[in-house]
Design goal:
The complex is a heterodimer. Chain A is mainly alpha-helical. Chain A has four helices and no strands. In chain B, the strands form two sheets. Chain B has a three-stranded parallel sheet. Chain B has a two-stranded parallel sheet with strand order 2-3. The chains are: A mainly alpha, B mainly alpha. The interface between A and B is large, with 32 and 41 residues.
Chain lengths: ~90, ~140
Amino acid sequence: MKTSIDLPDDLYRRVKSKSALEGLAVREVATALFAAWVDGRIADVPAEPVRSGQTTADWKYRWRALGAAVAESSGTEATLVDQLRADRR
Amino acid sequence: MTLDASVWLAALSPAERDHAECASLVASFLERGAALHQPGLFVIEVCATIARRTRDRALAIEAGRATLGVPGLVVHALDHEMAAEAAEIAAACALRGADAVYVATARRVDATLLTLDREVRQRAEPMAAVRTPGEWIGEMR
C-alpha cells in the first residue's frame, strides 16, 4: 500500500544520501527498518525524537544554558540534589 | 544505562558538588549515542526539584522539556508490570518508592543504574547493577 509521512528536511536529506551511497531506494530502507522494528530486531524507538534540526550539540548547549540559569536562581542554602533527597524522604 | 535524577540534577547545575563528574558522564553518553532508559518519574523529579528550589515556574518547565528531549531517551512507563516489579524490589531491599522505580527500570533492560545515593548503591546491588558516577568512571578507565 501507499502511505505518506512527514519527515524533518534535514533527516530526509541524510536518509536519501545514505541510501544512495548504499545503492538502495528510500522505500527499501524504510520497509526494511519498519519490518525490523515490528519484528523486535531493533531497539526501542526513543520516546521523543530529536526535534527537527536539533542535534546533540544543540541539546547540550540548551542544557548548559538552563544549568547556569538554575544555579543563579537556586540560592546557596541547599543544592538541587539535597532538595531531591529531602523530597524523597 | 539508567541515570537517577540525582545524577541529572548534578549534571545540570554548576553549583552542585558532583557537577563536573556527572556532566562529563552525561556528555559522554550523548556523544556515544547511548540509549538512556529512564522511568517517566525522572522528568517529574527534575522539574519538581527545580520548581521547589528556585520557585521559578518557567525554569522548571524548560527543564521538563529539556529532559524529554534528551537524545537517546527511552521512557519506561510505570505500568502494572513495572509497578509490581518496583514494589517487589522496594520490599526486598527496603528502598524508598522512587528509588525502587529506577532500579526496576534498569533491571527491566539489564542496564546499569548510576546514582549519587549511597544507600541505593548498597541495598539494590542484588537486584541490578548499581554504581556511583565515580565508580563507573573508574571502571571505564
